Amino acid sequence: MRRMSTDSLRRGRDAILDNLSRRSSRNRNEMHFSWDTNTPHLVVTADTPDFDPTTIQRFKDEGFETAYLPYNGVAKEYKNQLQVLEDPLELGEKYAIVAYGEAAALVLEACTKPMPKLRAVVAYYPTRIPNTSTGFPSSLRVQVHLADTRNNNFGTKHTCYTYEHSQPGFAEHDLDEYDEISDRLAWSRTIGCLREGFKIANDLEPVWDRHVNMKYVTKDLDGTISTTVEKPYVNYVPVMLGGDNYDELCQCYKESFIPKNPPSLKLRLISRTVGTDQIVDEMYLSFQHTQEVPWMLPGIPATDKQIEVAIVSVVAIHGGKISHENIYWDQASVLVQLGLLDPKHVPGGVRFTNGESGGKVERLPVVGAESAQKVLNKSSHASNQLLGNSA
């Protein structure tokens, strides 16, 4: 169920509808879009007069000239509108459609026939999927996102995804059915499909490298924050430190991160995986614990111990800026190296399902610096040492 429209939602809708222009013709139902010829063209369409302005803005932030086409419930009129969308386009210009609900079903049906300038179609939870033996034109990229309640038997060679624990509407921020996890997965795939259709290359690495350099090397707070979106989300997972808005993140970086890293801290990139809108870095981090490091060891005074730990950072980049980041590491390994966790000390009060107490367990399955050293050099330590005779 769509939530009540706010003034700002209505303003967003009106701004989107301003991109549309109607012109007289023999078919009074034809709708023509006023396109900016310098950017890839995108039509967002759904079966409501108002559509989620957050999603519209996200497409714009990714560089698409975006307009909204509402489906008014009259299928014949709507299909006529779809057929003339490309009329204003010049020679060589292309467009794509992202559709939701019943509009998505009608778009899928329409594009089984050639639409020469249409490069990609993304359909979110269509109410039905066309049963065709011929499929879609080979030049067209088609992607379908289904809620958990829908049958995912697409019946063609094109890509179809089903999102568990979701309902139709999961990708619209102003609906009660909105689901952040499903939306995030689908968004990455949608942007990938659109870029593939338009043959757009997008290099994420310079944005992320600049952010890392300012955060760890130059320690530039303002520069670091300038690389993020207006509402960033950062979570240092083992200690739940970070922030889910600009002010919180700025305070975290200012008070707990940038000035708090020991001068001995070194960071080495081990591997990097780059996706459509995400980067995953595997890194080796080392430092001497000469001061409190709140983002990793909040409340722990300096011990002068040497720390080595493998870190994984999962970063999302939207519109050329850092949107969110989750940072993972083995906190048990760090605590072992500080002497705060003894692998050989097993609490006696623990009861196991076989009735044995903790005293029967000889050691905890944790290690120290060896885990990071083996990431850096696979031959540094033998595998399976914790398995003992059972290996």
UniProtKB/TrEMBL annotation:
GO terms for biological process: polyketide metabolic process. It comes from the Eukaryota. Transmembrane segments: none annotated. This is SnoaL-like domain-containing protein. It comes from Polytolypa hystricis (strain UAMH7299).
